[in-house]
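During the reporting period, we have paired protein sequences with backbone structure tokens. One record among many follows, to show the layout:
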Amino acid sequence: MEDFDWTSFTKTIAVKANIADVYKAWTNAAELEKWFLEKVTFVGTDGPNPVESASAGSNYEWLWYLYKDPMKGRIIQANGKDFLQFTFEGECLVDVRLSEDKGYTIVELKQHNIPTDDKSKKFVRLGCSHGWAFYLVNLKSVYEGGIDLRNKDERLKPMINN
């Protein structure tokens, strides 16, 4: 495992949807709740009131189904069309790049700036890599077929689909 990169990973998926719709899926609270999170709150740079969509400099609070603790972070960049960067799991960065190819929107997600202590290797590098793989498939499922694959049943313990 000497040459394994513990500090970053990249996941890519093709989604048969308009690039503007996929960008909105990442930046609009209601759209994020369709495929990724139970509850999304963005707070803009103009004050403490929640806003509908992410913009550079705004903060977020995200809550997943079946988990009590929200994740808080900030939006570093949001260009309004094909790039978004936000903090995740502390000071890790997630870059979401969108491009068009043969009728698909290509979503490339790169999580980087991951610390290399043992806990971060296990829960951030390996855990987030698996988590993002599922959520990117769920993004594709929701936007191509309308089927949300997440487990939302509180009677069931957490599993690969939450």
In short: The radius of gyration is 16 Å. DSSP finds three helices and eight strands in the chain.
